[in-house]
Structure prediction request, 395 residues.
Amino acid sequence: MSTTFATRMTRVQPSAIRELLRLGDDPSVISFGGGYPDAALFPYEELCAAAQTSLIEEGAISLQYTSSNGIPKLRQQIATRMQAQGTPCSADDVLILHGGQQGIDLVGKLYLNPGDVVITENPTFLGAMIALNPCEPRYVGVAMDEDGMDMNALEQALKANPTAKIIYTVPDFHNPTGVTMSLERRKQLVALANQYNVIILEDTPYREIRFAGEPLPTIKSFDTEGRVIYLGTFSKILAPGLRIGWTVAGPEITRQLGLLKLAADTQCSTLNMKVISLFMEQNDIEAHIALLRDNYRRKCNLMLTTMAETFPDNVTWTTPLGGLFTWVTFPQGFDSADFMRHQLLPHAKVAYVPGEPFFAENPQPNYARVNFSSQPDSRILQGVRAMGELLKHPR
Ligand SMILES: Cc1ncc(COP(=O)(O)O)c(C=O)c1O
Prediction:
C-alpha cells in the first residue's frame, strides 16, 4: 500500500534528541531530563480517597459523559483560586483541558494558518513547538535575559512581522531557562500585544512552585482587551498523570476553544475531573503546594551548590526562583548532545536535555536543561558530581 500523508506531517518528525532521551529511560541512569515532578510527593492517600468516593458514592456521575467544557464545580474551584491569586475570572471563562499541552494545540488550531508567525522566547518550551508544528507556523524567537523576554527585541520582531498571530510565553520559572519575566515587562508585553493586535498565550505550569518572595501578577491580570489566553495545569502542583489543565479566556475565545475541544476528544475524563475537584474540597491544596515548594527549593539549592563545587569555571547556570529547571551554559564550541552521548551516558549514567531543540531560531549547541525535581537528593548529588568530574576530565 502506498500512503500519502498530509503535508503537515513533514513538521511532525521524531527528533534525534528524543532517541537520546530514550536512553535516559533506563532506571540505572540518573535522569535530569524530563520535567517530572517528584513522584514521592504525590498525595497518594488523599487522591485514593477522592477516587474511592468518586467511584463508590458518585460512580454513576463519575463514569458518565459530562459537559465538554468540564464539570461546573471544578471550573468554579479553578476560577475561585485564580481570583484569589489576583486574576479576575468566572467559572464560565474556564475551559478544562487534557493538560496544558492540549491548550497549546487548541490555540494553534484556533489561530494558525500555515506560515503564520508565532513569536516565542528563544529558547522556548520544546513541547509548545511540537504541539504547534502540525499547524505549520513560522517561529520568530525573541532573546531573553534575567528578566525574561527582551521587550525591545519583541518590538523589533513585531515590527518585522506585523501580522504575527500569537506570542507564546512561559513567564514564570520558564521552561527551559528557569527565568521569570519582570513586572514591568509583563505590562510592556500586554501594551505591545494591544498595539500589534496579537494574542498572548500565557503558559504557567510552574507559577505556583515559587521558592521565595511574592508571586508576580499574571499577564492575564493586565489584559484589558481579552487578548490573553491563560493556560494552567494540575500537572506540576498535583499529578501529571491525571492530565487535567485549563484555559482562562474571554467568552468568544472560550466558546471557540470549547468547540475545538469537543471536536478533538469530546471532554476530559469525568472521573479525573471529579477526583481533582473532590481532592480540593477535602484537602488543603495550598498546603500541598507549600510542601512541593519546600522540597523543590531544597533540591534546587542542592543541585546549584553541587554544581558550584564541582563544575569547571567556564560553565554557568541560571538560579531559578522556582519551577523545576536550571539552564546550563557551556563554553562556546561545546556540544552538549555530543557530551551526553559520548561522556555522560556511558561513563556516568547521567542524562539531561541538550539545549539545541529548545531554540525557535538560531539553535545553539552549548546549553542543557537540567531538572532538579524528579531525583532524590542522593542521586542529585551523585549525578551532578559525576557530571562535574567528566566536564573537568573527559575520558
Ligand atoms: C511550559 C510547559 N507548558 C505546558 C506543559 C504541559 O503540561 P501538561 O500537559 O502536563 O499540563 C509543560 C510540561 O512540562 C510545560 O513545561
Remarks:
- The radius of gyration is 21 Å.
